[in-house]
Write a structure and sequence with these properties.
The radius of gyration is 15 Å and the shape is elongated. The strands form two sheets. It has a two-stranded antiparallel sheet. It has a two-stranded antiparallel ribbon with strand order 3-4. 25% of the residues lie in helices and 26% in strands. Strand 1 and strand 2 form a beta hairpin. It contains two helices and four strands, in the order ββααββ. The protein has one domain.
């Protein structure tokens, strides 16, 4: 079955660097790593902890919902983080 929550990619908040191939399970390796273009931190501890909280919240809420009989997502959202641990919803689409 397809994962209920898919998070991937990493980007610099200071310059145009981004790598969409980075998977969430590898985020720990990116914690406080410098951007290869400008040297700023690519993933702050605050953002890393917010991703963990987001995952825990989604898991808890999904346990309350009826089982989805398809492998297709019901909602697709794009979030933006800026190193502060705050999340901004950029785009949201409903199936």
């Amino acid at each position: 079955m397809k994962s209920i929550l898919e998070i991937n990619g990493i980007k610099c908040d200071n310059c145009e660097y981004r790598d969409d191939s980075v998977q969430m399970e590898d985020y720990h390796a990116w914690l406080d790593k410098p951007c290869p273009l400008c040297g700023e931190k690519l993933l702050t501890r605050d953002d890393y902890e917010m991703v963990e909280k987001l995952c825990a919240t989604v898991k808890t809420e999904n346990e309350k919902l009826p089982i989805n009989n398809t492998d297709e997502p019901r909602v697709t959202a794009t979030f933006e983080m800026n190193g502060s641990g705050n999340i901004k919803i950029k785009d949201i689409e409903y199936d």
